[in-house]
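RECORD CONTENTS
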Amino acid sequence: MSHNHNHGDGCHGESHDHDHGPPEDVGHRDNLFSRIDRDNVVALNAEEPGKGPEVIKPWDKRSDETMYLESDADDQMCDNHWILRIPFTGAVKLRALLLKAGPADQTPTKVALFPNLEHLDFSDIADRKPAQEFNIPQGRDIGEYHVMPAKFPNVTSVTLFFPASQGADTTRIYYVGFLGQWSERKFEPVMTVYESKPNLADHEKIQGLNENWSAPGT
């Protein structure tokens, strides 16, 4: 049913068993589109960086090629390398990356995934080992790239690094999506009580369930 990209830890398998993307119900059941903080999607070295959120599309627009993000061919320092950072509105247990790229030699050679990476710098990326990376085959279908769950158990953002094209001066991405489970980000509550002058009467009211409690100094 699904086309699997079994690459192991940073290894790239040669077989890509493609179909035409996940079934409709899979797209609706655990597609994380509504859990992406689209306003804060950041693209670096893109021809039009402000268009980063436009490739984060709802499931029914995944095949639309009128909106896309392209690398900046004028930046000689970075060639056609570029970065897309996608934050979530909570914590995500990531299952798969969905990607539509191309056409032809404008397809990136591969994509490297970095979870929870706050710094967006090309030199930083170059020095880091990605949690996982995948070769990207040419084609018009939505590629579904299954990640290793142990490496993406509690993800608040994913940074995608596209290092090069398959021959063209630029790379192009039409659609980026994710499959997985979302949960609210949990913070430990911090409670601070400020008292200019302790009021023992208030403390007596707080006593409640603890009958052995005694006010300071008693």
The mean pLDDT is 79. Residues 24-183 form a domain with the Jelly Rolls fold (CATH 2.60.120.470). The chain has one domain: 24-183.
